[in-house]
Amino acid sequence: MTTPITRRDMLRGAVAISAAGIVTAAESSTHPSNLADAGWCWDGQGFNGGVNPSIFGAGEGARWFGLERECFMFHPNNALAMEKLCGFREVVCEISKWKVRRCENGVAHFLDGVIRTKCEEAGKVSALSKDYPFIKGAIDDDLLGVIRREKLKPEQYAAVHAALKKDNPRLQLWTVVYTHELKKESWAGFEPYMDVIHLWEWDAARLPELPRHIDLCRELFPGKPINLGCYLRDFVGKQGVALDMLKIQWELVRKYVADGTIEGYSILGGFLIDMHPEQATWVRDFIKSLSQNRRGLAHFAESSEQNVPVPFSSRFWDRL
User: I need a labelling partner for 234 at 20 to 30 A (CA). Which of 10, 50, 243, 261 fits?
Assistant: First the structure.
């Protein structure tokens, strides 16, 4: 007796075929052809740091920015979520794990972070990647703070790395590192389990110091790919990132993607688009302007060397 094919089986088959073609195409190129190709977006409903509920949910911020790579945050890692994210080229899933708790006036996020939770979540992502091959890895957020809080040892953290790779050795563990955490002793013994350094500057006022911090990051984690985090919100000042600081960071993103200093960048996040529309629109226009030229990265690498500004449109009808 034959087993009937379900709709989910058909969907998974289609995803596998589509992803196989994408992987082949991606592996044939070692460098992104334009700025959008290097971009990811943190999506999901985040409630900390004075953030309002958003109209943008999982996958929706990345699509609004014109990106095909998704950082899936703040929600359970399960098949339902992955089905919603079908169509993305690549997805990494958060395993830290941010969870919701009830409070007097509604809900709030808290970071679980215990080693058992990290291992369980990493195992879920690994298993899901067999059915959803667009899953390329996992993000461990605020790692050093949790290492200190939980008094984690490198040999304990090794289990998280192993759990992620159990069903798919090609998955990569993205580990969040802040620029103020770039001290060798802080990460001693953990380096072998950090596949991608997800680097963030927490204080927007310090963005002009980013070149020094990038150099330091490369010195501390030699050979490790860097994905640079880019905030829309200044969580220190509790407002949108000042446009002059935003422009400084994105000109550096442009340069570093072009010359291969960083592997990519991530926008935080889709859930802030409607809270900080001026910053979000500027970033979207900037990415768009550097993703439509046929010469792609070669064009803006030359522009950077010649110190020629790359134009972008801020008119509403050009953004439609």
Answer: 261
Question: Which own/partner contact pairs does 116-124 have at CB distance under 8 Å and 24+ positions apart?
Answer: 118/160, 118/163, 119/159, 119/160, 119/163, 120/163, 121/77, 121/93, 121/94, 121/95, 121/96, 121/97, 122/95, 122/160, 122/161, 122/163, 122/164, 122/173, 123/163, 123/164, 123/166, 124/77, 124/78
Residue showing tokens 């992955």: 82
Bridge-partner residues for 291, per DSSP? Answer: none
- Residue 18 above 90 pLDDT? no
Measure the CA–CA gap between 92 and 249, rounded to whole angstroms.
23
| DSSP bridge partners of 72 | 43, 93
List the structure tokens of 318: 């050009």
Instruction: Identify which of 245, 247, 261, 260 has the alpha carbon closest to the alpha carbon of residue 289.
Output: 247
What residue has token string 């215990």?
Answer: 114
Q: Which residues on adjacent β-strands are paired with residue 91?
A: 70, 135
Domain parsing of the chain, residue ranges: 32-309
Give the class (CATH, top level) of 32-309. Answer: alpha beta
Structural contact between residues 257 and 265, judged by C-beta atoms closer than 8 angstroms:
yes
Using one digit for the tens of pLDDT, what is the confidence trace for 141-182? 999 999 999 999 999 999 999 999 999 999 999 999 999 999
121 phi, psi to nearest 5 deg: -65, -40
144 or 304, which is more confident: 144
Q: How much is the pTM?
A: 0.84
Tell me how far apart the terminal alpha carbons of the chain are, to the nearest angstrom: 53
